[in-house]
Every structure is written in structure tokens, then in C-alpha cells.
Write a structure and sequence with these properties.
Number of strands: 0
Distance between the termini: 69 Å
Number of helices: 4
Helix content: 40-55%
Oligomer: single chain
Radius of gyration: 24 Å
């Protein structure tokens, strides 16, 4: 498959390409079946949310009602 053909099946573009008639749903399904499973390359990540200093200061100060 050429580099330009890969864009036909790109997940972000495939629905538009199907509507435009550049690729059929049958071709797309065949492409999905032909690609190899790369789950063994999966790497789990844990992300910690970082907050800005201003947010921490505001959260630490109690609200004062006048």
C-alpha cells in the first residue's frame, strides 16, 4: 500500500473518503482485517494532573462572604 493510499483509510479521514466515493466501506473493512494487531506494543501510562500555582492559592483560601 502506498503512502497516499494510507490516507484513504486514516481513521480521521475515512468517513469523509467513503462519502466522497474515494473508498468503499467494503474496502475499508478489508483494510481493517489486513492490518496486524499491535496490542503487544501497548504501554500503560499514568498521568498526574498538574495545577497552576494560581489555582492552588485560590483553592487554599476560603471564600469570604461580605
Amino acid at each position: 500500500m502506498s503512502h497516499s493510499d494510507q490516507f484513504l483509510f486514516d481513521k480521521r479521514l475515512v468517513e469523509k473518503n467513503i462519502r466522497r466515493g474515494l473508498v468503499t466501506r467494503k474496502e475499508y473493512n478489508a483494510y481493517l482485517k489486513s492490518i496486524e494487531d499491535s496490542t503487544e506494543n501497548l504501554e500503560h501510562l499514568e498521568l498526574e494532573e498538574e495545577s497552576e500555582e494560581g489555582e492552588e492559592a485560590e483553592a487554599a483560601e476560603p471564600a469570604v462572604e461580605a
